[in-house]
Amino acid sequence: MSSGAIIDLTLPGDVDNVPRSVVALSAKSVTKGWENARHQHHKAQLIYSVRGILNCEIEDGVWIVPPQCAIWIPGDLPHSARGSGETECYCLFFEPNAAPELPKTCCTISVSPLLHELLLKVASFPVLYALGGREDRLIATLLDELVEASVEDLHLPMPRDPRLRRLAEMMLADPAGKTSKAAWGPRIGMSERSMSRLLLHDIGMSFGRWRRQLHVILALQRLTKGESVQTVALELGYENASGFVTMFRKATGKPPARYLSDRTNRAERACAQGIMLPDEIPP
Question: What is the CATH number of domain 15-152?
Fold first, then answer.
């Protein structure tokens, strides 16, 4: 449990009984180091990070949510969530039939400037907003944009096999470890070949790709706290920053500084461009 404030990212009372297809928190949360214990609800949930890193954990994996991204959590799925460093986020809940094309699995979603404005606008609505009016029209537009949003590859799958789960937990505990794939097998009671085959079957990733994804997730958590690329590289076991940057670019398509700056500045660019929502466009 985090030593910081514990924030309840749900509505007062039972959110599942609110008679609206989309319900949002009316207030944003800016705090340092919060955590919500494992829980579930029938409505699907979207947590949008304006500032800071969010983490969501379910039985099958861990999702990382950098600034200007959101985590989609399907309904009835047990999960926990926590913030890393200073975070500012919005939380919305969706009925399963709000839109048939909404994601059916947990995922990290990239938030466009228009979707950003829609999320913030809808978050200001009263819980029991009037049906059939302006709020409904904006929510319909929000659902359209959410369906079209791109999915970020920021998922660290966790294996179900007990031996592979032990492998994952040991690597998470010592991400800078130099243990080779050949050496890991005997440590968990498997041959290297069997371990590789079962990993691919269980999580759909090779050992090397899984470890790279682990490093990206841990790096984002630390970089957003202000740690330097050099410090993070050394903490993750790289001999220099160059090797770490190469790994990060291969995994995300961008070097760390650009990856973070693109997301941090996205909301500011949206405001500077004066994006207008559908009901605000003059005739």
Answer: 2.60.120.280
Output the CATH code of domain 160-252: 1.10.10.60
CB 232 within 8 A of CB 219: yes
Instruction: Report the alpha-carbon distance of residue 240 to residue 245 in Å, rounded.
Output: 9
CB under 8 Å to 199, separation ≥6 — which residues? 159, 164, 205, 206, 207, 210
Residue 248 near residue 219 (C-beta atoms within 8 A): yes
pLDDT in tens, 128-150: 898 999 999 999 999 999 999 98
| Cα–Cα distance, 154 to 137 (Å, whole number) | 32
- Which tens digits make up the pLDDT trace of 103-124? 988 888 888 889 999 999 998 8
**Structure token digits, residue 209:** 């790709």
- List the chain domain ranges: 15-152, 160-252
Same topology between domain 15-152 and domain 160-252: no
